[in-house]
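User: Please predict the structure of the protein below. I'd like the answer in structure-token form so I can feed it into my own downstream comparison script.

Assistant: Understood. Taking the following sequence of 242 residues as input:
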Amino acid sequence: MLDPHERDAIVAREALLQDDTNYWALVEIFVGRKSSHIALIKQAYHSKYKTHLDQDIINIEPPHPYQKIPVALSTSHEAHQADVSQHTAKCDARRLYETGEGSPGAIDEGLVLEIFTKRSIPHLKLTFSFYKHIYGHDYTKSIFDANSGEFKDALKMVVKCICNPPNYYAKVLFASIKGMTADTGAVTRVMVRRSEMEMDEILRVFKAKFGVETREAICESIPSGDYRDFLLALANKTVAAF
């Protein structure tokens, strides 16, 4: 029942306070919201917790390779230019190639983080689209082939979240409903947050990929009660809006 920016501030706080920081909850916030909304989230976070969200992410202990990406994405909402430049996006795609699969060795983390810090999410999406157009395959393929450890794994998931949100969230939803991940809050997070955006498409992808309706999966895997009824109500509301 909270405003979206207040709810996201609470999600971010809970993600940071978990024993194992929930980096994906943080990434989903920065990837899935406009800069104006991110500013409201940061204001709500500071008002509620008397500390700054950006600084809390930077201060995560112990440091983790995943930590670098939400820090960069958070900065991008303050630093990037509003306009999306096709020329710059093509240049960024070529730079990613030349410092990645176009040369031996691991991905250039510094370059990736520089681009993530300075570019908007729409610009990054265009960059990855040009990468596929120029080199004939998704940027995630070059990430998969590289030897960059945990940073590589985090980068691959972020790119998927940017380029194809319905596919990304369908996988998150399935893994959470079936208990394949430790992120127990992901079901609620996806169902509530994405209901404001492309939940109908997520449900279609879910059925196409996993051969079962989301409502059926919820009924099969989540015990009866108010929580299940709440999730089913969200799913049915989306279907009814078709």
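That's the full token string. The chain has a mean pLDDT of 87.
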